[in-house]
Design a protein that fits this description.
Layout lengths: L7 E6 L8 E6 L18 E4 H19 L5 E6 L2 E2 L10 H11 L11 H14 L3 H4 L8 E9 L4 H23 L7 E12 L10 E7 L2 E9 L2 H15 L1 E12 L7 E11 L4 H5 L7 E3 L7 E8 L11 E6 L1 E2 L5 H11 L4 E4 L9 E8 L2 E7 L14 E2 L2 E2 L5 H10 L7 H4 L5 H12 L16 H4 L2 H5 L6 H19 L18 H18 L5 H13 L4 H17 L2 H15 L3 H11 L2 H19 L4 H14 L6 H5 L9 H28 L1
Parallel strand pairs: 1-4, 1-6, 6-7, 7-9, 10-13
Antiparallel strand pairs: 2-3, 4-5, 8-9, 10-11, 11-15, 12-13, 13-16, 14-18, 16-17, 17-18, 19-20
Helix pairs in contact: 1-2, 1-6, 3-5, 14-16, 18-20, 20-21
């Protein structure tokens, strides 16, 4: 028989001189300094030693384990070569360990005992080889001895951490050889070594954390790095939850009278630890979203929030519970935890509900005490096994009354399994896989609810297509029968015959007949397409359906769209429109023309001119692209709004040259100056 690893745990405390140092985290004790009274000098800060922090976190770890597992989870403490307690039940309590720690005393700052950790780890291995009372009751040949060693120490380097691991591995190997020849010892089959490197608050460290890894076939090791004080406490609480499979529940909204003013009350929260089995049903339900939050006690873990329900009686009523587990508060010394504990120990029960923003109240857990111990009870929120079995018409999302029950009966009859005959087993055919393949093909398209299908409600019109299409192979006669069924549906749509439909819209009106046929064709296509890959004959049935299927609205509107696109691309359309407007204007009478001129303010003449201009443009340029047509039209519109600049009209390009006569005068003047200078030069040459 194999007990779990957490059945035996050994703590090894490093009593070296380094743990005589201060943890560098002060204790808040000066109440007078908070009042801000003038003239009062604040007291000097007080700090615990690292040894004190190690002892307090060790005691807290043991308290959680002993509160939840009072008998089958055992812990022993080793300091140097000294073992402080035994595996016997009388020594498995906090008082015995605290008394032994007091006798061992704190470490000395000037001590030179640097090898106490190695001796402690070796002693821890020997302790794990000893039998517990539960192991003594069993046959030692059938016992798999497992355990865990947790060492609180301070290492100087990574090599020292590896030396500790090698020390434990060698010690296990040696003690296993000794245990083979001893009646009072058991060889260790598996051990977990947890090394916790502790430093003062604020100090840096060169040690890195390592996840659990296999050191040897019988030893796994992991390294944790943490600071002393409250950080070490948070690390040990996190480890105890991981080692013993614990979960956290935060009870919110606890009404409690104020300590300062008894006439008023406030709501408090209390965080509890318990085995994780109490949350199994809660996490499987559909209402678990939003229940998991971060720990309100500052722990690096998560907690499930449950709301306090005011108890109506002092008697614990009989509830249908699926699980009951012991609990312990995270902060056992706080006033809210003490009040909740005393309230439950008085014989009263507390119902806990899931906090929900809307909907009915869901009470999922209950806190009650039995025999002086407090338990959390997981109340079944689903249908009880003691009630009548649920009807098939009741689904998960509510009451559903239109399941295809009769069709499902026929489906089960058609897919019944029968035991194989002896001669069939010798053929080498895997009939089980063959049956699974057949069942998958038959259920490939099978709606569960009547309201979700149309073709299976009109079986008399499409038979035998649903029965034939699920076959593995089809012949020509089967394809012909399927085509006949499709043609029959086409005839029904042509005659506009109604289809059976159970889905009704608002005010009792169902969908339109066109929508019904559209849904029917889509469902029929899904049925045939699901089996189209079975054989080429199935593909022929699908092709027949696609040919006979009525085109959708997009397909119907596609010809119109192509015509519109052609009209947009064809420039002759604008030209014909201009001619039509011009002809309509010329056919008007004089009276109609006058009325049109009055209403449009003479716009008809301009429009007529623009139409004539557009007409000439279309005639000269001929057919062009849409951009050129639009650009020419914009130019013609802008040309009618102002008188063109004469210089631009006479110029060759888009730019007109200004002050042309000025340039001519400059050229004439420059020519005269050149001639004068040349004459003077000639005169000088003559003089020389």
């Amino acid at each position: 028989m194999s007990y779990p690893v957490e059945h035996k745990t050994v703590f090894v405390l490093d009593k070296g001189p380094l743990f005589a140092r201060s943890c560098k985290q002060s204790i808040e004790y000066d109440v007078m300094s908070k009042t801000k009274t003038p003239g009062i000098i604040p007291a000097a800060p007080i700090m615990k030693s690292m040894w004190t922090c190690n002892v307090e976190t060790l005691i807290e770890y043991m308290r959680v384990v002993f509160d939840i597992f009072p008998a089958k989870r055992m812990i022993r403490v080793v300091v140097g070569d000294e073992v402080l307690n035994e595996w016997q039940q009388k020594d498995q309590n906090i008082q015995q360990v605290m008394l032994a720690l007091g006798q061992a005393g704190p470490p000395e700052a000037k001590s030179k005992e640097d090898e106490n950790v190695v001796r402690g780890l070796t002693q821890a291995v020997q302790v794990l080889c000893e039998l517990t009372p539960l192991q003594q009751e069993l046959d030692r040949d059938l016992i798999h001895n497992k355990g865990r060693i947790i060492c609180l120490t301070t290492a100087k380097s990574e090599s020292q951490m590896r030396a500790f691991e090698e020390c434990v591995s060698d010690a296990i190997l040696q003690h296993n050889q000794l245990a083979e020849d001893s009646d009072s010892m058991l060889p260790i089959s598996h051990c977990e070594l947890v090394l916790i490197h502790v430093t003062p608050v604020g100090d840096e460290t060169k040690i890195t954390e390592r996840q659990s890894r296999e050191i040897s076939s019988y030893l796994n090791g992991e390294v944790h790095v943490t600071q002393s004080g409250k950080f070490l406490y948070n690390k040990l609480i996190q480890l105890v939850q991981a080692h013993y499979g614990l979960s956290s529940t935060t009870v919110t909204g606890i009404p409690m009278k104020e300590e300062q003013n008894a006439s008023s009350s406030a709501n408090y929260d209390v965080e509890l630890l318990h085995p994780s089995q109490a949350h199994d049903d809660l996490m499987k339900s559909a209402h678990s979203d939003g229940l998991v939050i971060a720990s309100k006690e500052g722990l690096p873990t998560e907690s499930v929030t449950l709301k306090w329900c005011t108890p109506k009686s002092n008697i614990v009523e009989l509830q249908y519970c699926t699980c009951a587990a012991r609990i312990t508060p995270v902060d056992v010394n706080s006033r809210p935890s003490s009040c909740l504990t005393n309230f439950l120990l008085s014989g009263r029960a507390v119902m806990l509900e899931q906090p929900r923003k809307s909907g009915t109240k869901v009470i999922s857990h209950m806190l009650a005490s039995h025999g002086g111990e407090i338990f959390i009870h997981a109340i079944n929120t689903a249908r009880s096994l003691l009630e009548d079995p649920p009807s098939i018409s009741e689904g998960c999302g509510g009451r559903v009354t239109d399941y295809r029950i009769n069709d499902f009966k026929e489906f089960m009859k058609e897919n019944r399994l029968a035991p194989a005959l002896p001669e069939m087993m010798t053929t080498g055919t895997n009939y089980l896989n063959r049956a699974k393949t057949h069942l998958e093909r038959m259920s490939r398209f099978w709606p569960l609810v009547i309201g979700e299908t149309i073709i299976f409600n009109m079986a008399s019109h499409i038979d035998p297509l649903p029965t034939i299409i699920v076959k593995e192979k089809l012949d020509d006669e089967d394809v012909l029968e399927c085509q006949k069924a499709i043609y029959h549906v086409v005839g029904m749509e042509t005659r506009n015959e109604p289809l059976p439909s159970s889905s009704a819209g608002p005010r009792g009106k169902g969908p339109k007949r066109d929508e019904q046929y559209k849904q029917m064709w889509a469902e029929l296509e899904s049925l045939i397409r699901a089996h189209a890959d079975s054989s080429p004959q199935h593909q022929r049935v699908l092709e027949c359906l696609l040919k006979c299927k009525k085109p959708t609205d997009d397909a119907r509107s596609s010809p119109k769209k192509t015509k519109e696109e052609k009209s947009e691309k064809d420039p002759s359309t604008d030209q014909s429109y201009a001619w039509q407007e011009l002809d309509r204007f010329q056919k008007m009478t004089e009276k109609e023309k006058q009325e049109m001129n009055k209403s449009e303010g003479g716009a008809s003449s301009a429009k007529k001119a623009r139409l004539s201009t557009d007409e000439t443009q279309f005639k000269t340029k001929g057919a062009g692209n849409l951009l050129s047509l639009w650009t020419d039209r914009i130019k013609s519109v802008h040309s009618k709004r102002h008188v063109e600049f004469s210089g631009r009209a006479q110029s060759d390009g888009n730019q007109a040259e200004l002050y042309q006569n000025l340039n001519k005068q400059l050229q004439e003047n420059s020519g005269m100056e050149v001639s004068t200078s040349s004459q003077k030069g000639l005169g000088i040459q003559k003089k020389m």
